[in-house]
Design brief:
Length: 411
Amino acid sequence: MDDFIKKNIRGLKPSATLAINEKAKKLLKQGNKIYNFGFGQSPFPIPEKIVSTLKENAGKKDYLPMQGLKELRVAISKSLLSKTGIEYDKDNIIITPGSKEAMLLMHVAFNGEIILPAPSWVSYEPQAQIAENKVHWLQTSRDNNWFPTAEDIEKKIKSIGNKNIILIINSPNNPSGTVCNNLKEIAKVAKEYKIKILSDEIYTDLTFDQNYLSISKFYPEGTFISGGLSKWCGAGGWRLGFFASPDGNKEFINALKTLASESYSTVNSPVQYAAVEAYQGNYDDYKAKTTHILKSVGNYVYNNLKSNKVLINPPQGGFYLMPEFLNSKFKTSSEMCDDILSKSGVALLPGSDFGFKNDKMLTRLSFTDFDGDLFLKNISGSKELDDDIIKKYAPNVVEGTKKLAEWHKNL
């Protein structure tokens, strides 16, 4: 029945991040000891006041406007203004069931071509494929923190020619855990060639130096922003995201609203009311503590895994590291990850899922396999978390890192 499925859909596979989570769960049920370094989910509980607000509004059953609750769009607009210095009007913001859906709507509505730096999150390319938008990959290097240079982008734009283009930037980055240090230069090129940028800012609140830097600061008129509650707030399962557009894109916003009305209709009402509290309330202390834990755990993995044969850039935000295992034993990173899982119990994602060539032995490592609630309750202040604390409250991460290092030594 191949002809029953559209050509652009046939080659799609289930999301790699969700697939590894299901595989890890299956192995766990079979009695295997698994270190789940493959799935990037916040380990921390949602702040209690936000949960209480959800409970208070659990009886709200009426459909909300397809664009989203006005109070929530206002709260997000004010939050973005305070963080970026740029005003995104409430009428240019759409509330979506997760930022993933926001990006899918963008791809479906957009008529043009997409530039993706490798590495990029696993769903960017499949979503473009669903929407039949051609993807142009830009390979990056460790020396530039796994982000493209302005020169690389300019060369790619010239090769594409006179077409509508969206460049997707994600900083801190999934999968590398690094921060883009050349946003100003990238913005300058984008502005010169009048291309649009989607700034995926789902991890920006988890930047380890506490500096929320958005490329919109340098190119406000051409930058879309997507974000949500899944990462900084620990509310991945609530499915609350947003898409914000600068002024001058009314027809595009209207197209997104129409797509929303014909697909999910509206995001569930109780979560939208709770999200108002999430964006209006002051959760700086919660963010500081969770980010401090993530930074400490990430640095532990980095310091105990890196070697002259395991190359890694230090973590700068989010949940991830991107180790490269130098060896000639495996033909593909996927084959290597299968070997790692079977021999050490450590679940990783291969670099090929993120846009790298198959023969580059890069992987994504998520260091969130610990009880975030327990960890939060047992630390105070911002003092440095020593190895003993990490061993006590993140034992799976410690054991998994040791298993991974031993696997590589025994190759």
